[in-house]
Design a protein that fits this description.
single chain; alpha+beta; 2 domains; 4-stranded antiparallel sheet; 8 helices; about 25% helix; binds flavin mononucleotide
Amino acid sequence: MQTTGEAICPVSTASLVRVIAPRNSKDIIIITIHQKSILVSFVETTTQSKSKPQNHLNQTKTVFFSLKVVTTRIITMKVNVLESLLTVAIATTVWSPAVFGFVVPRVNNHAAGSITALSANIGIFFGTSTGSTEEVADLIKAEFGDDADGPFDIEALEGPVKSTFEKYDALIVGTPTWNTGSDTERSGTGWDEIYYSTMQELNIKGKKVAVFGLGDQVSYAENYADAAGELHDVFESLGCQMCGYTSMEGYEHEDSKSIRGEKFCGLLCDVVNQEELTPERVENWVAQLRAEGFLEGGSAQGASAATATPVPVTVNETPDVLFETIQEHSDMLDETIKVHGSTGFIPHYNGKTKSTMWVSPDGRSCYYTTEARSSSSVSM
Ligand SMILES: Cc1cc2nc3c(=O)[nH]c(=O)nc-3n(C[C@H](O)[C@H](O)[C@H](O)COP(=O)(O)O)c2cc1C
């Protein structure tokens, strides 16, 4: 395997769901370790069987399906098998967990033969004095692409704060720190004006919210990005589900009011001292948010339900053939897990090259095995 073409959820993320699809292949590997849903990502294929009709699976696309996973399982299958599986799964409602490891809860408002992709309506908001937080907000927007609106400057909103925030299913909010050492109103931006007045009237309980903060960890080592902590706490006190906590590894601060437990309460960037790390930090954070289910939205009050977009799917095989194929894959994977399972490395099998990529639990290293069991190590 010449490394996977697209690692849509980086294996280094402590992700609940992992999907890997090798480039130039119709094979798709899904690794599901999610309690409530499976993330399925379809990667653009360059070759296409003549008999296979054109459909949405030939585009790069990430969609969330509400499938209840009852076991931790690895499924390797062809895209056409996968699409048929999902179609039949939705249509028939329940599959035996013994066959491939998950059952599908009844989904309302579906015609048989269609899949509903759920994606949250995300809004990105920021405050800034000298523009750095806006730059990071732009990077976050670029990483989310069409999945997010904005970024919007909190001081230049077109409508009232209340309706603007309430219309989104999930919010990404960012702030710098200017009022060093302050107990409250630490941002030095428009956030300070609304934290304890307008925002207290928001009906956003249950919304998913992720915070990012800008600061200078060298000059303000004792107060690094303090304002992100306040931004976090205001949303948390309104009943929001806070997402996107990050490791403090790689920072040089001495203290910060943004620390919650062993982590920062969101993404912290320092364009003064570590500007070169910012793009990668943003990229990893957005991948983390996706893996945390940020795009699935929250159970927000006052917000519209997650947008449901029916996607037509073509059934290529009968359920019997599907069961057989899945059983085959399942047996094969059980066997590889039995052989290699004790190492703690997680296998990613590529049926095309007949090789397996084994990824360490922390996602930092991997090695490959072929059917002849030869292997080589690489760092990721
Ligand atoms: C007067 C002043 C006070 C600052 N106070 C802090 C601080 O307490 N903590 C911190 O991490 N950074 C502090 N900073 C650094 C800014 O937060 C940092 O430059 C940030 O990137 C500015 O973001 P903005 O351009 O979006 O306003 C301060 C900078 C200045 C000039």
